Amino acid sequence: MKEQKGRVTFKGEPLTLVGEKITPCMTAPKVTLINNKLELVTLENEEDTVLIVASVPSLDTAVCSKETKRFNKEAESLPGKAKLIFVSMDLPFAQERWAKEYNITNITFLSDHKEAAFGKAFGVLIKELRLLARAVFVIDAKGEVTYTELVKEMTDEPDYHAALSAAAARGIS
After folding, report:
1. Spatial separation of the C-alpha atoms in residues 155 and 146, rounded to whole Å
2. Strand-by-strand arrangement of the 131-132 sheet
3. Half-sphere exposure of 97 (CA within 13 A, CB side)
4. Nearest in space to 118 (alpha carbons), one of 50, 49, 4, 17
5. How far apart, in Å, are the Cα atoms of 24 and each of 37, 69, 79, 124, 143?
6. Which entry of 50, 54, 64, 85 is annotated as an active-site residue?
7. How far apart (Å, rounded) are the C-alpha atoms in residues 135 and 152?
8. 170 and which of 7, 82, 124, 140 could share a cystine (Cβ 3.0–4.6 Å)?
9. Does pTM surpass 0.70?
10. Mind listing the domains of the chain with CATH numbers?
11. pLDDT, tens digit, for every residue of 10-33?
12. Residues 77 and 164 sit within 8 Å (Cβ to Cβ)
């Protein structure tokens, strides 16, 4: 499996990502994840739906919590058909507990803890930590990746405006 050294850092220290770099115009990789009912689900979108897929290291960290709450709030005003999906290595039980604790209702949570399939396929698996790097992908209704952001420093937040604008440009407005 391909490794990408130094594409992300944690408090300035370089880390290694495992997997291929995903770029716009690529077809989104097909992966299987686990939902909060412990069912295997694939990361596919429905017809006429744009996916905003964010990967985070862990919902139980300050920056991930802040990011998830912000995207949940922004989702309330998204026009058209958009679906927000958050992927982490957290167990489905932890994701469900966290979502209930903060009343997060506009996001679907999927776990990559078992196989790290998403992390490897999307090139965001951090080798040293076995966590996912902070990233955002927009996938259009045809399954094409139209926007990517890999947040360089793990303690930074993504560019919310850019991600939401990219989704709106794909026909959800």
Report:
1. 25
2. 3-10, 13-18, 125-126, 131-132
3. 8
4. 17
5. 32, 26, 22, 15, 11
6. 64
7. 9
8. 140
9. yes
10. 3-172 (3.40.30.10)
11. 999 999 999 989 999 999 999 999
12. no
